[in-house]
Structure formats: structure tokens, C-alpha cells
Amino acid sequence: MLTLHKAAAALPKPSRSRMCEFLRSFGFDPGKLFLHKLILGIETSCDDTAAAVVDESGKVWGEAIHSQTEVHLKTGGIVPPVAQQLHRENIQRIVKEALSTSKISPSELSAIATTVKPGLALSLGVGLSFSLRLVDQLKIPFIPIHHMEAHALTIRLLNKVEFPFLVLLISGGHCLLALVRGVSDFLLLGKSLDIAPGDMLDKVARRLSLIKHPECSTMSGGKAIEHLAKQGNKLHFDIKPPMQRAKNCDFSFTGLQHVTDRIITQKEKEEGIQKGQILSSAAHIAAAVQHTTACHIAKRTHRAILYCKQRDLLPQSNAVLVASGGVASNFYIRKALEIVTNATQCTLLCPPPRLCTDNGIMIA
Ligand code: KG4
Ligand code: ZN
């Protein structure tokens, strides 16, 4: 079996495919013969239909993704039945594409891993029923995946990170700080008491009508804020970080959204423009809100690091902080986190932006 596996791995991908066909013609199941088991990961928890094939050594064989961002930008937010319909329309094509870029056939798969929670029930249902039909057809195991655990563990595809480490997950639907003690052993240290930072940034971007801005029209709210903030002065508006006195590691973003909303309304009056038009001070507002978001996230994370070190939950030196989720692809927020990790002798690790946002690789 080992010889077979080595021979196949040494061959270029098309030959591996031919070898699989050859094995199949003798009644062997290549998926079961190769030591490097191939897992198909499927993600449909929110607004991305994604699939990827990864083997147990962490090698990515291929992936495909269909983002619904543009559609949801037009409707001003995710409408669950619309997201469900788009997942239905795309899932088969995306899975096919992930398999064909991997140059493998479904019968070579060892298992299918699919996000089962948390997420939008209607969206999750599409990936789940598609996967259950496929595992039944292929007679292979099904691996249910927790979306946030997948975000937290993605870094281990790229870096050799030992347990325990601290993880900060900041996305459109989630905001949490946790100590990762093992593959499915998480100690929750803090969470958002209201909305997630990505949700807040999306709402601010909508309120600023950034979809009408020529440079940002196809970007997610958070990305549009990051882009525009580069042209603005973060000190032009003074927005205070929330929960300055709270002695815990929780977060809050609703207050920030309301304060920003009030600034926008005030500026609209001053500039004599209607809601829906772009303010001349939009870039300053984007810079200020991004800065305050970064300060808040960094301060709460600092508390979590100190808490873990005090209680020997993390090593005193070279402890690792992993930041992931869509909002962690923001370079200004990463810089703020880097200040915290430098001051506490920790190492900050972030997956590249395309692995921070939802994808099939992290699920596989
Ligand atoms: O992890 P993700 O793809 O999906 C969820 O699980 O939510 O995160 C999407 C969120 C959106 O709210 C989006 O606005 C935000 O991540 N986001 C960003 C950036 N890119 C995406 N936020 C700040 N800066 C970015 N560059
Ligand atoms: Zn996510």
C-alpha cells in the first residue's frame, strides 16, 4: 500500500488520475488505497458557496468558491432565502470545479466534511443535504464541521502551531476570544455582547452608501471601509472605544455603530446632502471607525493575553495569538494586534486574507 501511495504521489496529477482509473479497472478503490486520504470540504454557512479538496498532510489539491457579496450588497444585506437559492444554484458547479481543479474523481474521496453550524439555517441546509446525498452515493463517511473551529484551526495548514494558543475570531457573524487547547477543546474567554465587528462595518459602509463609491462598489463593507480609510484622517472624528472599564474580555459594537450613525447624520446636515449620497468626509469617518474598532479589539485581546499568562493557561514566552475570520484580513487591525503581541512577547499569526474569509479549504 505504501509503495502504491509513493508511486502515485511521485507522478504528476494527470498520471495520478490515470493510475486511479487503472486501479479501478482491477476493482480497487483508489481513495481507500492511497495513504493520503482526500477530504472534500463544503462550506455554505453564510453567503459563500465554497468547496476544496485537502489531503491529511494539509496539502490543498484544489478549490472553488462562489461569492454572493455583489447580490447582497444590492439588497443592503443578506436575505436568507436569497442566499439559500444562490447556494442551490451554485453548489453542484462549485463542487465539480473543486474536484476538477484537484484532478480527482469523486470515487477517490475518503470523506466529505461540511459546515453544520453555526450559520444561517437555510444556507447550512443546502450544503448539508447536498453532502449527505453525496456520502450516501459514494459510501464514505461524513464529517460535521463547526465553522468557528475551522476558522480557528486553519492556521495549522500553514504554520506548526502547538496547543494551547489564543484565537481571536472576528467576522461578519462572530466575535470571540478563545483558548484553543486541542482540535476540539476550546475555552471561551470573551465574545461580543451584541453584533459582530464585520456586521457593524457592513452597516456603517451601507450608511455611507459606499456601494455607490466607484472604488468600493464590489467590496464587502469591511473591505470598503479599509480601502477608504487609507485616504482619511483617523483623528478627524473622535470616536471612543466602548467598554473601557469592563473587567472582562467581551466586546461590543452596537454603540460604535450608533455613534458613527449620528456623525453621518450630522455631516449630511452640514453638507446639505440627502441620505444615500456620498459625504465629502466619508474617508475620515471610515478611518475613525476603523481606528476605534482596531483599538477596541486590541485592548480586549490584550486583557485576554494577560489573563491567560497570569493563570499559566499560555506559556510565558512565545505564546501564539491567531487572528482569523473576515475582519482579521484587515491590515490596520492586524497592525494594532501586532502592537499588543510585541508588548506581551507573543507571536501574532494570521492566515492570508483569502483563508481568513470563508472558504472550503478550512472546512476540509
Ligand atoms: O469570515 P467571513 O467571510 O464570513 C463570516 O463568517 O461572517 O467574514 C465576512 C465579514 C464581512 O462582515 C466583511 O465586511 C468583513 O468580514 N471583512 C472585512 C474585510 N474583509 C472582509 N472587515 C474589515 N476589513 C476587511 N479587509
Ligand atoms: Zn466565517
Automatic annotation (TrEMBL):
- One of its Pfam families is TsaD
Report the domain of life of the source organism: Eukaryota
Q: What is its main location?
A: mitochondrion
The listed locations are: Mitochondrion
Sorted alphabetically, the keyword list is: Acyltransferase, Metal-binding, Mitochondrion, Transferase, tRNA processing
Task: Report the cofactors.
Answer: a divalent metal cation
Is Glycosyltransferase found in the keyword set?
Answer: no
Q: Which residues are the signal sequence here?
A: none
Cofactor remark from the record: Binds 1 divalent metal cation per subunit.
EC number in record:
2.3.1.234
| Gene3D superfamilies cross-referenced by the UniProt entry | 3.30.420.40
Q: Respond yes or no to whether keyword Translocase is given for this record.
A: no
Residue limits of the Gcp-like domain? Answer: 60-364
Q: Which reaction does it catalyse?
A: L-threonylcarbamoyladenylate + adenosine(37) in tRNA = N(6)-L-threonylcarbamoyladenosine(37) in tRNA + AMP + H(+)
What does the sequence similarity comment in the record state about its family? Belongs to the KAE1 / TsaD family.
What's its job?
Required for the formation of a threonylcarbamoyl group on adenosine at position 37 (t(6)A37) in mitochondrial tRNAs that read codons beginning with adenine. Probably involved in the transfer of the threonylcarbamoyl moiety of threonylcarbamoyl-AMP (TC-AMP) to the N6 group of A37. Involved in mitochondrial genome maintenance.
Its recorded name reads N(6)-L-threonylcarbamoyladenine synthase
